[in-house]
């Protein structure tokens, strides 16, 4: 698996390496299980380290297929697309533009750092994201380099 998943009550965190279609299935299963467990859509945070390779065509196609189910199971969806400078900012802008069209208003966010996630949320949701990020940090996933399935 080219990703690591952390689940806390009401939230799921994923850090990526080179994603595969099977990884997309694992993430969807984790998000749907978390939503079923707490009885409502969950907060989802996905971290893409600066050195993570882009998904190949089959992984992108599978992401397109699972996205409607993710939309249903997520209250908010946060992509932490790391990197500095103009190129990273452009990538975040493009990603925001692409996904804003398919998500409910104020549910899809792109950040440069995981510390920014809480500021995009209503006050009552901040404890949930803090628990999630604390759990991810305890496992070293806020600073981990990309995972590779090979």
Please provide a written account of the structure.
The chain has 150 residues and is α/β, with parallel strands linked by helices. It has a single domain, classed as Transcription Regulator spoIIAA, CATH 3.30.750. The chain is 43% helix and 21% strand. It is built from four helices and five strands. It has a five-stranded mixed sheet, sandwiched between helices. The longest helix has 18 residues.
Map the helices and strands.
Elements lengths: L2 E6 L2 E6 L4 H18 L3 E7 L8 H17 E8 L3 H16 L7 E4 L14 H13 L12
Parallel strand pairs: 2-3, 3-4, 4-5
Antiparallel strand pairs: 1-2
Structure keywords:
150 residues, Transcription Regulator spoIIAA, globular, five-stranded mixed sheet, 5 strands
How are the strands ordered across the major sheet? 1-2-3-4-5
Q: What order do the SSEs take from the amino end to the carboxyl end, as H and E?
A: EEHEHEHEH
CATH level-1 class: Alpha Beta
**Count of helix runs:** 4
Number of strands: 5
Write down the Rg: 14 Å
Provide the number of structural domains. Answer: 1
- State which percent range the strand residues make up: 15-25%
Q: What general form does the structure show?
A: globular
**CATH-assigned fold name:** Transcription Regulator spoIIAA
